[in-house]
Amino acid sequence: MATSTLTGQVQEGGQARERRMAQNLYSPRVRLGNWNEDIYLEEELMKDFLEKREKGQLLIQRNRRLKENLLRPMQLSISEDGYVHCGDKVMLVNSDYPETEAHLVLGGDLSLCMTPDEIQAHLSDELEVPCGLSAAQTKIPVGRNTFIILSEDRNAMGQVLRYGQNFCLAITGGFEGKMANAKVIINHCHTNRGLAAHRHLFLSTYFGKEAEVAAHTHLDSHRVEKPRNHWMLVTGNPRKDLSTMLDLPKPPAEDSRALEQATKALEQAVDPGVQ
């Protein structure tokens, strides 16, 4: 019995010794598999990463530059004579109004904005054109909502923009009346449809929740364009403490008219028979 027990212990010790020998067959310095190729691959990936980072070609760097350019503060042109001129830098703003046709809307003044494709925005540091448009709740002039007025005539720079005259709005990336900071209707040349801000239709853009912009003329019962089609070519403010003319306080009379219009619209929404 004792001999049998001793034999079992010797066999067990031999197995343990064999396992230790197998474990020590390869030291920690020994490399298995395609270790050389793996090292070269890691070195090439690191080299490529450092080279792209040095040249500013990483996706996160491109994305950051595009965002910085689109959100860069801009200086609007100051209209000293009340007119808008070819070459002026302006914002296109759909002024706030009481919306009675929808319950959930984006309120306040909405500015026309360039809206890049979200996927392309992560892949490129330049604005891909053509790109979409939206209307955002901001009155601060930045790269994506500041436009330059261009004319078909290259020699028209500095000239007054007149009603009925074709013009283009370029991203910065005769007029019988004064147009600066006044409400106007902007029609698409090929379809003759008015530019409209649909405050009740929301877009989830690269910059957040904004309103849809489309070329569609909305007419009331008198065949007059609704406030959805009303835009203002907003210029800069000569006062240094204010960025745009929208920041100027409204005259008391204008505030009273706006309050009366809002009250009347609310009464009509509650009781359609109210005149």
Question: Could you give the topology of this structure?
Answer:
Layout: H1 2-23, H2 35-55, H3 59-70, E1 89-94, E2 110-115, H4 118-123, E3 132-136, E4 147-151, E5 167-171, E6 183-184, E7 195-205, E8 208-215, E9 231-234, H5 252-270
Antiparallel strand pairs: 1-2, 1-4, 1-9, 2-3, 3-8, 4-5, 6-9, 7-8
What do these coordinates show?
This protein is of the alpha+beta class. The protein contains 5 helices and 9 strands. Strands 1, 2, 3, 4, 5, 6, 7, 8 and 9 form a 9-stranded antiparallel beta sheet that branches. The longest helix is centred in the first third of the chain and has 22 residues, at 2-23. The chain is elongated and about 100 Å long.
What characterizes the major β-sheet?
Answer: 9 strands, antiparallel
What count of helical segments does DSSP give?
5
| Topology as a string of helices (H) and strands (E) | HHHEEHEEEEEEEH
Based on Cα principal axes, name the global outline.
elongated
**Overall pLDDT confidence:** 76
What is the SS-derived class? alpha+beta
Percent strand equals: 15-25%
Rg is 33 Å
Identify low-pLDDT runs: 1-11
Termini separation: 116 Å
| Number of strand segments | 9
Into which percent range does the helicity of residues fall?
25-40%
What descriptive keywords fit this protein?
single chain, 9-stranded antiparallel β-sheet, 9 strands, 29% helix
